[in-house]
Amino acid sequence: MNQVYRHVDTYLFSKSVDTGAKYLKVEKPKNSKSFCVMLDEGEEIIDEFEGATFCWRSHIETFDDNSQGSKKKTQPSQKKSYIITFNKQHREIVIGKYLKHVIEEGRAIEFKNKKQKIYCNDRMPSWWACYNSMWKHINFEHPATFDTLAMDPKKKAEIIDDLIALTNGKDYYSKVGKAWKRGYLLYGPPGTGKSTMIAAIANYLNYDIYDLELTSVKDNLELKKLLMEITSKSIIVIEDIDCSVDLTGKRKKAKKNKKKDDSDSDSDSDSDSDSDSDYEGKKKLTLSGLLNFIDGIWSACGEERIIIFTTNHVDKLDPALIRRGRMDMHIEMSYCRYEAFKVLAKNYLGIDTHPLFQEIQPLLEEVNLSPCDVAETLILKNTSGGIEICLNNLILALKDSKEKAIQEAREKEKQDSEEKPKKNKKLKKIYGRFKKLFR
Ligand SMILES: Nc1ncnc2c1ncn2[C@@H]1O[C@H](COP(=O)(O)OP(=O)(O)OP(=O)(O)O)[C@@H](O)[C@H]1O
């Protein structure tokens, strides 16, 4: 009920700001942690909805507990409420739509104004226990947005559409019987913007981030407890999942021992628990624990959640961990190509075009330079003639990389050609032996 009251307060506050009302005051009610916006006794706010007019008035009732004959004198207590008046003919609108609208609007305004936070589960010092939470947090103030993120615009638009579908998907998810959450796998070489993408998603949705450090998690039970403390409308991030804990190697070992070949992906996930149980005793945080964390029964104990894994080595991950349904969208963060470069040039140098772009474009298509390396060359180091210097620095870096790549390719070719006669000699030897055997 308190929460509903808070949403109404927020809504009325926003209305009073719109109408420039002066009589609002901010108070901290007794026994409450948060501040509340109150109308003074008898003050009014007029609101309109679907052609009907509503008048909100604050009402304060005072209770004098001393009248009960108690010896101990106490301060009179106050109960605040709102009285809403409207024409009788609008009764249906009020009950059917208006009150719901007020609460939803209030909730949305609160969500928009809330300070984003980033949580982490690093090992807590003993005194932390008094906070009764397994997560530490600070305010999240990362400047990355989808506008500053350099990547193929089509891919970017696809991701934004997917996020919008998630946030509007309450009814859809309940209709299809799926937990209201989405998993994204971000993979690609270092410096291609995986962490930047997470910050951009968080800022776009105004979600909190829970940065889950798997190496600090003692066992599956602790993972479950961490999950239970994560709020709705949040992003759970596991960075560098391939290096977090050895969830893959041991499973593969266990799999090798299995006689049955689990080929289809569903039976693959079912076999997770079987294979894990082989070494469950030795290893406390297991792959099956993590799989349950992502989409087990407990994972549905919150709504509107996003789970993001990042990795530089997608091929090292267990297929069960990243199969569709767990990681719904696989997003490759790639080297900087021309379209992505244009975003960086706009952000860093404030330009949409430049004659030097003609030279840069073909180089970017054939050289693998990460957006991080490109961005480094574009940072303006002085103001006079800076843009041209930056672009020339980029051209130099690209040419340098191209030269190195050609050099490496030549060396590899040389190595291969040296190894080829050796390999042929070996093959001839084996072939000779076979010939002898079958003679
Ligand atoms: N796609 C991008 N768009 C804009 N800036 C980028 C992009 N990629 C990298 N950067 C810049 O490079 C820096 C490093 O990028 P980021 O940490 O996001 O890369 P990463 O892929 O997560 O790297 P790693 O795999 O090493 O963790 C960022 O601070 C950002 O300034």
UniProtKB/TrEMBL annotation:
InterPro entries: AAA+_ATPase, AAA_N_dom, At3g28540-like_C, ATPase_AAA_core, ATPase_AAA_CS, Mitochondrial_chaperone_BCS1, P-loop_NTPase
Essential cofactor(s): Mg(2+)
Pfam families: AAA, AAA_assoc, AAA_lid_At3g28540
Biological process per Gene Ontology, one example term: response to stress
Keyword Acetylation attached: no
Entry keywords, A to Z: ATP-binding, Hydrolase, Magnesium, Nucleotide-binding
Domain of life: Eukaryota
Stretches assigned to the AAA+ ATPase domain: 180-337
Any one Gene Ontology molecular-function term assigned to this protein's record: ATP binding
Region (Disordered): 254-281, 407-427
Amino acid composition bias (Basic and acidic residues), ranges on this chain: 407-421
Comp. bias (Acidic residues): 263-278
Catalysis: reaction(s): ATP + H2O = ADP + phosphate + H(+)
Segments passing through the bilayer: none
Family per similarity comment: Belongs to the AAA ATPase family. BCS1 subfamily.
Name the record gives this protein: AAA+ ATPase domain-containing protein
